[in-house]
Amino acid sequence: MTDIKEYFLSNPSSSQVLLYAVIILSLWLIEAVVLATSWKDKWRHTLTNILFIGTALPVQLFMTIFVLMLVSWCAVHHWGLLYILPFANSYFTKYFIGFILLDFCEYLYHVIMHKVKPLWRFHLVHHSDLQLDVSTTVREHPAETFLRMCFLILWVFLLGASFGVLLLRQTLQTVANISSHTRFRLPGKANYVLGWVFITPNLHQVHHHYQLPYTDCNYGDVLSIWDRLFNTCQNDLPETGLIYGIDSHMDKKYNSGFLRILKIPFQSRKD
Ligand SMILES: [Zn+2]
Ligand SMILES: [Zn+2]
Q1: What is the per-residue pLDDT for 37?
Q2: Mean pLDDT of the 13-21 span
Q3: Which one of 31, 235, 261, 265 has the largest count of C-beta atoms within 10 Å of its C-beta?
Q4: pTM, 2 dp
Q5: Quick check: is 139 in a domain?
Q6: Rounded to whole angstroms, how far apart are CA atoms 38 and 134?
Q7: How many Å lie between the centroid of ligand 1 and the Cα of residue 55?
């Protein structure tokens, strides 16, 4: 156990990649077996999405260098909101408040990606998947990966987030993001109770519905409290009413080829 903890703390990037791979692979297999999807269809769909790892990972790892440099600078200079809050040295402020504030920043980032037209063109790539499953988690345009990391640098600078809270956030985010993209659905009551605090698969499936106003709701990353607070929450939709994708890009042909998808943000079509 101590060895795992040591490895986790001394190799933050590789341990996060490993954790990501283990969770996504396990849920992918469970999804295929439990939901009895055709292996051929599921693999074909996954292959398109999995190629995005090849473009996202180098950007993510390269930008992490700057995030970690900034984290050290904030720690040395005691810079950021978390350093001026009461009990700044306590675990409660550093980790609990730090995590809550970072999750709010992630909510804000997601709203910005939807509301600012030039940025939406890149985030649209994630929404253009007509067949939601765990592999959709990694479907992200490399330009969005870059933007997401630039925003993370901004959040770290404003909050003065420590290495510890970033590692905590990244770990919880990995578990939450991958599980919220599964095809599984929680029973009504469980979704209702868990959904008061967390983004459940049911809630994120509504976010992936192809039409407004559903696309513009449930922006939360790990916590759903921000959606409830800012009135952007849509509790659930019946499974039969869920159609995944985005209404401006419902053409199967244009949504299934990796290179074609990469070009989506640069197409001159009416949104
Ligand atoms: Zn979105
Ligand atoms: Zn999603």
Answers
A1: 75
A2: 81
A3: 261
A4: 0.89
A5: yes
A6: 15
A7: 19
